[in-house]
Amino acid sequence: MPNHYDTIIIGAGISGLSLAHYCAGAGQKTLVIEKSGRTGGCFHSHRFDGDAAGFWLELGAHTCYNSYGNLIGIMEEDGLLDRLVKREKVSFRMLVDGRIRSIPSQLNFPELLLSVPRLFTLKKNGESVASYYSRIVGRGNYERVFAPAFNAVLSQKAGEFPAGMLFNKRPRRKDIMKSFTLVNGLQTITDALSCEPGIEVVTGTTVPALDFSDGTYQIKTESGQSYETKNLCLAVPPPAAASLLSGLLPDISALLGQIKVETIETVGVAVKREKIQLAPLAGIIAPNDIFYSAVSRDTVPHANYRGFSFHFKGGVASLDEKLKRISEVLKIGQQELTQFVVRESRLPSPVVGHEKLTAAIDRLTDRKALFLTGNYFLGLAIEDCISRSRAEFMRLSGRN
User: What's the predicted TM-score (pTM) here?
Assistant: First the structure.
Protein backbone atom coordinates (compact mmCIF):
# COMPACT_ATOMS: atom_id res chain seq x y z
CA MET A 1 0.00 0.00 0.00
CA PRO A 2 1.33 3.47 -0.83
CA ASN A 3 1.97 5.90 2.00
CA HIS A 4 -0.72 8.58 2.10
CA TYR A 5 -0.04 12.27 2.79
CA ASP A 6 -2.36 15.24 2.90
CA THR A 7 0.05 17.16 0.67
CA ILE A 8 3.08 16.08 -1.34
CA ILE A 9 5.55 18.63 -2.65
CA ILE A 10 8.16 17.80 -5.29
CA GLY A 11 11.16 20.11 -4.91
CA ALA A 12 12.92 21.14 -1.68
CA GLY A 13 14.16 24.62 -2.50
CA ILE A 14 12.86 27.67 -0.66
CA SER A 15 9.64 27.58 -2.71
CA GLY A 16 8.84 23.99 -1.82
CA LEU A 17 9.96 24.19 1.80
CA SER A 18 8.08 27.42 2.50
CA LEU A 19 4.93 25.83 1.09
CA ALA A 20 5.58 22.78 3.28
CA HIS A 21 5.93 25.13 6.27
CA TYR A 22 2.49 26.61 5.65
CA CYS A 23 0.90 23.20 5.05
CA ALA A 24 2.43 21.58 8.14
CA GLY A 25 1.48 24.64 10.19
CA ALA A 26 -2.14 24.00 9.22
CA GLY A 27 -1.90 20.44 10.53
CA GLN A 28 -1.39 18.70 7.20
CA LYS A 29 0.80 15.62 6.96
CA THR A 30 3.31 16.85 4.40
CA LEU A 31 5.96 15.08 2.33
CA VAL A 32 8.70 16.82 0.34
CA ILE A 33 10.59 14.86 -2.34
CA GLU A 34 13.92 16.19 -3.60
CA LYS A 35 16.06 14.67 -6.37
CA SER A 36 19.39 16.00 -5.07
CA GLY A 37 21.13 14.82 -1.95
CA ARG A 38 20.42 18.05 -0.05
CA THR A 39 17.56 20.43 0.62
CA GLY A 40 17.64 24.18 0.14
CA GLY A 41 18.02 24.67 -3.61
CA CYS A 42 19.55 28.11 -4.12
CA PHE A 43 19.99 28.40 -0.34
CA HIS A 44 23.36 26.71 -0.57
CA SER A 45 25.84 27.73 2.12
CA HIS A 46 28.77 25.44 1.46
CA ARG A 47 30.78 24.56 4.56
CA PHE A 48 34.41 23.87 3.76
CA ASP A 49 36.52 21.28 5.52
CA GLY A 50 40.22 20.62 5.98
CA ASP A 51 42.26 23.74 6.70
CA ALA A 52 39.18 25.88 5.93
CA ALA A 53 36.88 24.05 8.36
CA GLY A 54 34.35 26.48 9.85
CA PHE A 55 34.37 28.74 6.78
CA TRP A 56 31.16 28.88 4.73
CA LEU A 57 30.37 30.46 1.37
CA GLU A 58 27.10 31.19 -0.40
CA LEU A 59 26.89 29.46 -3.78
CA GLY A 60 23.40 30.74 -4.56
CA ALA A 61 21.28 33.34 -2.77
CA HIS A 62 23.47 35.53 -0.59
CA THR A 63 21.38 38.34 0.93
CA CYS A 64 18.05 38.81 2.68
CA TYR A 65 16.34 42.15 3.34
CA ASN A 66 13.94 43.51 5.94
CA SER A 67 11.37 43.90 3.15
CA TYR A 68 11.07 40.10 2.93
CA GLY A 69 8.06 39.99 5.22
CA ASN A 70 6.93 36.44 4.53
CA LEU A 71 10.45 35.10 4.96
CA ILE A 72 10.89 36.97 8.24
CA GLY A 73 7.55 35.61 9.44
CA ILE A 74 8.75 32.06 8.80
CA MET A 75 12.04 32.78 10.55
CA GLU A 76 10.16 34.14 13.57
CA GLU A 77 8.08 30.98 13.80
CA ASP A 78 11.22 28.84 13.58
CA GLY A 79 13.06 30.91 16.21
CA LEU A 80 15.81 32.11 13.88
CA LEU A 81 15.78 35.87 14.41
CA ASP A 82 18.45 35.66 17.10
CA ARG A 83 20.82 34.21 14.49
CA LEU A 84 20.79 37.21 12.16
CA VAL A 85 24.16 38.61 11.11
CA LYS A 86 24.57 42.12 9.76
CA ARG A 87 26.42 42.37 6.46
CA GLU A 88 29.42 44.71 6.30
CA LYS A 89 29.06 47.70 3.97
CA VAL A 90 31.38 47.02 1.06
CA SER A 91 30.75 47.84 -2.59
CA PHE A 92 30.44 45.94 -5.82
CA ARG A 93 33.10 46.79 -8.36
CA MET A 94 33.64 46.20 -12.06
CA LEU A 95 36.32 44.30 -13.92
CA VAL A 96 37.44 46.63 -16.74
CA ASP A 97 40.44 45.86 -18.95
CA GLY A 98 41.73 43.43 -16.35
CA ARG A 99 41.56 45.92 -13.47
CA ILE A 100 39.07 46.32 -10.62
CA ARG A 101 37.29 49.67 -10.94
CA SER A 102 34.57 51.45 -8.97
CA ILE A 103 31.14 51.57 -10.60
CA PRO A 104 30.91 55.42 -10.50
CA SER A 105 34.21 55.66 -12.39
CA GLN A 106 32.55 53.96 -15.36
CA LEU A 107 29.50 56.22 -15.54
CA ASN A 108 28.91 59.13 -17.88
CA PHE A 109 27.29 61.56 -15.43
CA PRO A 110 26.08 64.15 -17.98
CA GLU A 111 24.24 61.36 -19.83
CA LEU A 112 22.84 60.10 -16.52
CA LEU A 113 21.58 63.53 -15.46
CA LEU A 114 19.86 64.07 -18.80
CA SER A 115 18.15 60.68 -18.69
CA VAL A 116 17.21 60.06 -15.06
CA PRO A 117 14.16 62.42 -14.96
CA ARG A 118 12.35 59.80 -17.05
CA LEU A 119 12.33 57.65 -13.91
CA PHE A 120 9.32 59.66 -12.70
CA THR A 121 7.21 59.21 -15.84
CA LEU A 122 8.25 55.97 -17.53
CA LYS A 123 6.27 52.87 -16.53
CA LYS A 124 7.69 49.36 -16.33
CA ASN A 125 4.61 47.64 -17.77
CA GLY A 126 5.38 46.08 -21.13
CA GLU A 127 9.04 47.07 -20.96
CA SER A 128 12.12 44.89 -20.90
CA VAL A 129 15.08 45.61 -18.65
CA ALA A 130 16.95 46.97 -21.68
CA SER A 131 14.16 49.17 -23.05
CA TYR A 132 13.24 50.59 -19.62
CA TYR A 133 16.61 51.20 -17.98
CA SER A 134 18.45 52.38 -21.11
CA ARG A 135 16.04 55.32 -21.24
CA ILE A 136 16.50 56.09 -17.55
CA VAL A 137 20.30 55.96 -17.37
CA GLY A 138 21.17 56.61 -21.02
CA ARG A 139 22.09 54.10 -23.71
CA GLY A 140 25.84 54.42 -23.17
CA ASN A 141 25.61 54.01 -19.40
CA TYR A 142 23.26 51.09 -19.83
CA GLU A 143 25.49 49.16 -22.21
CA ARG A 144 28.72 49.92 -20.35
CA VAL A 145 27.59 49.60 -16.71
CA PHE A 146 23.97 48.72 -16.08
CA ALA A 147 23.58 45.84 -18.54
CA PRO A 148 26.53 43.95 -16.98
CA ALA A 149 25.18 44.81 -13.51
CA PHE A 150 21.73 43.40 -14.32
CA ASN A 151 23.37 40.34 -15.88
CA ALA A 152 25.22 39.90 -12.58
CA VAL A 153 22.03 40.24 -10.53
CA LEU A 154 20.16 37.66 -12.61
CA SER A 155 23.16 35.48 -13.56
CA GLN A 156 22.06 35.58 -17.20
CA LYS A 157 21.68 38.07 -20.03
CA ALA A 158 19.05 40.36 -18.56
CA GLY A 159 18.13 42.61 -21.47
CA GLU A 160 14.90 40.80 -22.45
CA PHE A 161 13.83 40.17 -18.85
CA PRO A 162 10.54 41.92 -17.91
CA ALA A 163 11.40 45.14 -16.07
CA GLY A 164 8.37 44.72 -13.83
CA MET A 165 9.77 41.52 -12.30
CA LEU A 166 12.76 43.34 -10.78
CA PHE A 167 13.13 45.49 -7.66
CA ASN A 168 9.54 45.44 -6.46
CA LYS A 169 8.88 47.72 -3.49
CA ARG A 170 7.66 46.06 -0.31
CA PRO A 171 6.97 47.26 3.25
CA ARG A 172 10.02 47.05 5.49
CA ARG A 173 10.28 45.60 8.98
CA LYS A 174 11.95 48.49 10.80
CA ASP A 175 12.80 46.22 13.74
CA ILE A 176 15.02 44.10 11.48
CA MET A 177 18.36 45.19 10.02
CA LYS A 178 18.06 46.31 6.39
CA SER A 179 20.15 43.49 4.92
CA PHE A 180 21.32 40.37 6.66
CA THR A 181 22.49 36.81 6.52
CA LEU A 182 22.59 34.20 9.29
CA VAL A 183 25.18 32.44 11.39
CA ASN A 184 26.48 29.69 9.07
CA GLY A 185 24.73 31.25 6.07
CA LEU A 186 21.26 31.40 4.55
CA GLN A 187 21.02 27.63 4.34
CA THR A 188 20.35 27.79 8.08
CA ILE A 189 16.79 28.79 7.11
CA THR A 190 16.09 25.84 4.82
CA ASP A 191 17.85 23.45 7.22
CA ALA A 192 15.38 24.56 9.90
CA LEU A 193 12.40 24.21 7.56
CA SER A 194 13.46 20.68 6.63
CA CYS A 195 13.35 19.66 10.31
CA GLU A 196 9.97 21.14 11.20
CA PRO A 197 7.41 18.85 12.86
CA GLY A 198 4.87 17.60 10.35
CA ILE A 199 7.28 17.78 7.40
CA GLU A 200 8.91 14.61 6.10
CA VAL A 201 11.71 15.03 3.57
CA VAL A 202 13.02 12.41 1.16
CA THR A 203 16.19 13.34 -0.75
CA GLY A 204 18.27 11.69 -3.44
CA THR A 205 15.40 10.29 -5.48
CA THR A 206 13.48 11.35 -8.58
CA VAL A 207 9.86 11.02 -9.66
CA PRO A 208 9.85 9.68 -13.24
CA ALA A 209 6.10 10.14 -13.80
CA LEU A 210 2.78 10.81 -12.09
CA ASP A 211 -0.56 8.99 -12.15
CA PHE A 212 -3.99 10.32 -11.20
CA SER A 213 -7.24 8.45 -10.58
CA ASP A 214 -10.32 8.88 -8.40
CA GLY A 215 -9.15 12.31 -7.23
CA THR A 216 -5.81 11.01 -5.96
CA TYR A 217 -2.28 11.45 -7.28
CA GLN A 218 -0.07 8.36 -7.25
CA ILE A 219 3.66 8.93 -7.04
CA LYS A 220 6.31 6.26 -7.42
CA THR A 221 9.91 7.32 -7.00
CA GLU A 222 12.86 5.95 -8.93
CA SER A 223 14.00 4.25 -5.72
CA GLY A 224 10.73 2.29 -5.60
CA GLN A 225 8.78 4.12 -2.88
CA SER A 226 5.06 4.70 -3.49
CA TYR A 227 3.03 7.63 -2.16
CA GLU A 228 -0.40 9.10 -2.73
CA THR A 229 -2.07 12.42 -2.01
CA LYS A 230 -5.09 14.54 -2.82
CA ASN A 231 -2.93 17.68 -3.10
CA LEU A 232 0.14 17.71 -5.33
CA CYS A 233 2.55 20.65 -5.41
CA LEU A 234 5.37 21.08 -7.92
CA ALA A 235 8.21 23.34 -6.80
CA VAL A 236 10.67 22.49 -9.56
CA PRO A 237 12.01 24.39 -12.60
CA PRO A 238 9.53 24.79 -15.48
CA PRO A 239 11.06 22.07 -17.72
CA ALA A 240 10.87 19.53 -14.89
CA ALA A 241 7.26 20.50 -14.11
CA ALA A 242 6.39 20.29 -17.81
CA SER A 243 7.88 16.80 -18.01
CA LEU A 244 5.99 15.55 -14.95
CA LEU A 245 2.67 16.85 -16.26
CA SER A 246 3.09 15.88 -19.92
CA GLY A 247 0.99 12.73 -19.63
CA LEU A 248 -1.59 13.99 -17.13
CA LEU A 249 -2.19 17.61 -18.10
CA PRO A 250 -0.68 18.28 -21.53
CA ASP A 251 -2.20 21.75 -21.81
CA ILE A 252 -0.48 22.94 -18.62
CA SER A 253 2.68 21.08 -19.59
CA ALA A 254 2.78 22.88 -22.94
CA LEU A 255 2.57 26.28 -21.25
CA LEU A 256 5.31 25.41 -18.78
CA GLY A 257 7.44 24.21 -21.67
CA GLN A 258 7.40 27.71 -23.14
CA ILE A 259 9.37 29.12 -20.20
CA LYS A 260 13.05 29.19 -21.06
CA VAL A 261 15.72 28.49 -18.47
CA GLU A 262 19.40 29.36 -18.25
CA THR A 263 22.13 27.19 -16.75
CA ILE A 264 24.61 28.85 -14.40
CA GLU A 265 27.80 27.10 -13.36
CA THR A 266 29.16 28.35 -10.04
CA VAL A 267 32.64 27.77 -8.67
CA GLY A 268 33.17 28.81 -5.06
CA VAL A 269 36.68 29.21 -3.70
CA ALA A 270 38.12 29.73 -0.23
CA VAL A 271 41.56 31.36 -0.18
CA LYS A 272 43.79 32.30 2.75
CA ARG A 273 43.48 36.02 3.44
CA GLU A 274 47.16 36.79 3.07
CA LYS A 275 47.21 35.43 -0.49
CA ILE A 276 44.75 38.02 -1.85
CA GLN A 277 45.66 41.69 -2.15
CA LEU A 278 42.26 42.91 -3.38
CA ALA A 279 40.60 45.43 -1.07
CA PRO A 280 37.40 44.14 0.57
CA LEU A 281 34.41 44.23 -1.79
CA ALA A 282 30.89 42.86 -2.11
CA GLY A 283 31.59 41.35 -5.48
CA ILE A 284 32.89 41.83 -9.00
CA ILE A 285 30.75 42.57 -12.06
CA ALA A 286 32.33 41.21 -15.23
CA PRO A 287 31.31 42.68 -18.61
CA ASN A 288 32.10 40.53 -21.67
CA ASP A 289 33.69 37.66 -19.77
CA ILE A 290 33.04 33.96 -19.26
CA PHE A 291 31.47 34.73 -15.88
CA TYR A 292 28.73 37.19 -14.93
CA SER A 293 29.88 38.01 -11.43
CA ALA A 294 31.93 36.96 -8.44
CA VAL A 295 30.13 37.40 -5.12
CA SER A 296 32.43 37.86 -2.12
CA ARG A 297 32.21 36.63 1.47
CA ASP A 298 33.80 39.97 2.54
CA THR A 299 30.34 41.08 3.70
CA VAL A 300 30.84 38.66 6.62
CA PRO A 301 34.59 38.86 7.26
CA HIS A 302 36.52 35.82 8.44
CA ALA A 303 39.80 35.96 10.33
CA ASN A 304 41.70 33.56 8.08
CA TYR A 305 39.90 33.14 4.76
CA ARG A 306 38.25 35.07 1.97
CA GLY A 307 35.68 33.47 -0.30
CA PHE A 308 34.33 34.17 -3.78
CA SER A 309 31.52 32.53 -5.74
CA PHE A 310 32.12 32.95 -9.47
CA HIS A 311 28.93 32.56 -11.51
CA PHE A 312 29.97 31.33 -14.96
CA LYS A 313 27.94 31.22 -18.15
CA GLY A 314 26.77 27.68 -18.80
CA GLY A 315 28.71 25.47 -21.18
CA VAL A 316 31.47 27.91 -22.13
CA ALA A 317 34.45 26.72 -20.06
CA SER A 318 35.92 23.60 -18.48
CA LEU A 319 36.59 23.46 -14.76
CA ASP A 320 40.30 23.99 -15.36
CA GLU A 321 39.55 27.04 -17.53
CA LYS A 322 37.30 28.41 -14.81
CA LEU A 323 39.94 27.97 -12.12
CA LYS A 324 42.50 29.61 -14.38
CA ARG A 325 40.19 32.61 -14.89
CA ILE A 326 39.53 32.84 -11.14
CA SER A 327 43.25 32.91 -10.41
CA GLU A 328 43.72 35.67 -13.02
CA VAL A 329 40.94 37.83 -11.57
CA LEU A 330 42.10 37.36 -7.97
CA LYS A 331 45.74 37.73 -9.05
CA ILE A 332 46.91 34.59 -7.30
CA GLY A 333 48.57 31.41 -8.48
CA GLN A 334 46.20 28.63 -9.49
CA GLN A 335 47.95 26.40 -6.95
CA GLU A 336 46.29 28.49 -4.21
CA LEU A 337 42.85 27.23 -5.30
CA THR A 338 42.91 24.00 -3.33
CA GLN A 339 39.58 24.67 -1.61
CA PHE A 340 36.84 24.92 -4.23
CA VAL A 341 33.32 23.65 -4.82
CA VAL A 342 31.10 23.57 -7.92
CA ARG A 343 27.35 23.95 -8.32
CA GLU A 344 25.03 24.00 -11.33
CA SER A 345 21.77 25.95 -11.21
CA ARG A 346 18.91 26.49 -13.62
CA LEU A 347 17.08 29.81 -13.51
CA PRO A 348 14.02 30.90 -15.49
CA SER A 349 14.58 33.38 -18.28
CA PRO A 350 11.21 35.10 -18.84
CA VAL A 351 10.55 37.73 -21.49
CA VAL A 352 8.08 40.61 -21.82
CA GLY A 353 4.54 39.22 -21.71
CA HIS A 354 5.50 36.48 -19.25
CA GLU A 355 2.66 37.46 -16.92
CA LYS A 356 0.14 36.39 -19.60
CA LEU A 357 1.72 32.96 -19.68
CA THR A 358 1.61 32.52 -15.90
CA ALA A 359 -1.97 33.84 -15.83
CA ALA A 360 -2.94 31.16 -18.35
CA ILE A 361 -1.27 28.52 -16.17
CA ASP A 362 -3.17 29.80 -13.13
CA ARG A 363 -6.49 29.64 -14.99
CA LEU A 364 -5.90 26.00 -15.90
CA THR A 365 -4.88 24.98 -12.36
CA ASP A 366 -7.49 27.07 -10.53
CA ARG A 367 -10.02 24.26 -10.06
CA LYS A 368 -7.50 21.47 -9.70
CA ALA A 369 -5.71 20.09 -6.65
CA LEU A 370 -2.46 20.86 -8.43
CA PHE A 371 -0.30 23.66 -7.06
CA LEU A 372 2.68 25.25 -8.77
CA THR A 373 5.27 27.45 -7.12
CA GLY A 374 8.74 28.70 -7.90
CA ASN A 375 10.77 31.64 -9.10
CA TYR A 376 9.03 31.85 -12.47
CA PHE A 377 5.77 33.40 -11.26
CA LEU A 378 6.38 36.68 -9.41
CA GLY A 379 10.15 37.05 -9.79
CA LEU A 380 13.52 35.58 -8.84
CA ALA A 381 13.77 37.22 -5.40
CA ILE A 382 13.49 35.02 -2.32
CA GLU A 383 10.39 36.87 -1.18
CA ASP A 384 8.77 36.41 -4.60
CA CYS A 385 9.17 32.64 -4.23
CA ILE A 386 7.68 32.58 -0.73
CA SER A 387 4.84 34.93 -1.69
CA ARG A 388 3.87 32.56 -4.50
CA SER A 389 4.01 29.59 -2.12
CA ARG A 390 1.82 31.41 0.38
CA ALA A 391 -0.72 32.22 -2.33
CA GLU A 392 -0.84 28.59 -3.45
CA PHE A 393 -1.24 27.48 0.17
CA MET A 394 -4.24 29.80 0.50
CA ARG A 395 -5.74 28.27 -2.64
CA LEU A 396 -5.07 24.78 -1.29
CA SER A 397 -6.67 25.67 2.05
CA GLY A 398 -9.75 26.96 0.27
CA ARG A 399 -10.25 23.58 -1.37
CA ASN A 400 -10.06 21.54 1.84
Answer: 0.95
